[in-house]
Design a protein that fits this description.
heterodimer, A: about 110 residues, mainly beta, globular, B: 6-stranded mixed β-sheet, about 0% helix
Chain lengths: ~110, ~110
């Protein structure tokens, strides 16, 4: 597609429920990133996929968070047993290759845990 | 790993005022630096980037940033801001991923 697509754009969930957030990167972009943007906290790196390499999960805040990328394209970020502190905007970005810093960001999913 | 810090959390200016937003980076070696902007309700967009060469980098919409190695700084500047510059500004440095500063919210009063 023309840009990075994320769905849903907004998600309200009850504390304790699981949620799945989806990211469709730009076709042909080998690198995919998930970030979390919380009020007053800036952008927090979560996880990074590069081609067929093992993902860099160093930013995931707890074992309730996981992500996968199927077929080198679509990625799903899953948050299990959501907590109120998980409320944030979750941003996905893709990039063409390792040497190109042309990140393209999606519009994000606003997650509210009530 | 390299990191960046932004110390101004919220800046409020009147139109036509000059702008300087601070960004400091942590690493003294070869460094690439970026400024991103997020207008209200919009995606993050690249404003400008520094790789090497001329330390004064020109970006879109009249923004510029100066890489000062001795000060570990890459401050963003604009001589005369407009109401439409109201946005959040992020300084960033690449590792395997892009590491962002906490961001500076700029409010420009008309």
């Amino acid at each position: 597609g023309a840009g990075v697509s994320q769905s849903p754009s907004n998600k309200v969930t009850e504390k304790g429920k699981d949620v799945e957030l989806r990211c469709d990167p730009i076709s042909g972009h080998t690198a995919l990133y998930w970030y979390r943007q919380s009020l007053g906290q800036g952008l927090e790196f979560l996880i990074y996929f590069q081609g067929n390499s093992a993902p860099d999960k160093s930013g995931l805040p707890s074992d309730r968070f996981s992500a996968e990328r199927t077929g080198g394209s679509v990625s799903t970020l899953t948050i299990q047993r959501t907590q109120q502190e998980d409320s944030a905007v979750y941003l996905c970005a893709s990039r063409q290759d390792r040497g190109n810093y042309g990140y393209t960001f999606g519009s994000g999913t606003r997650l509210t845990v009530v | 790993a390299q990191s960046v810090s932004q110390h101004n959390h919220h800046v409020i200016l009147s139109e036509a005022a000059s702008l300087e937003l601070g960004c400091n980076y942590s690493y003294g070696g070869t460094v690439n630096l970026f400024w991103y902007v997020q207008y209200p309700g919009q995606h993050l967009q690249l404003l400008l980037k520094y790789f090497s060469g001329d330390p004064l980098v020109k970006g879109i919409k009249g923004f510029e940033a100066e890489f000062i190695k001795s000060k570990f700084s890459f401050n963003l500047r604009k001589p005369s801001v407009q109401w439409s510059d109201t946005a959040e500004y992020f300084c960033a440095v690449p590792n395997n991923d892009m590491r962002f500063g906490a961001g500076t919210r700029l409010t420009v009063k008309p």
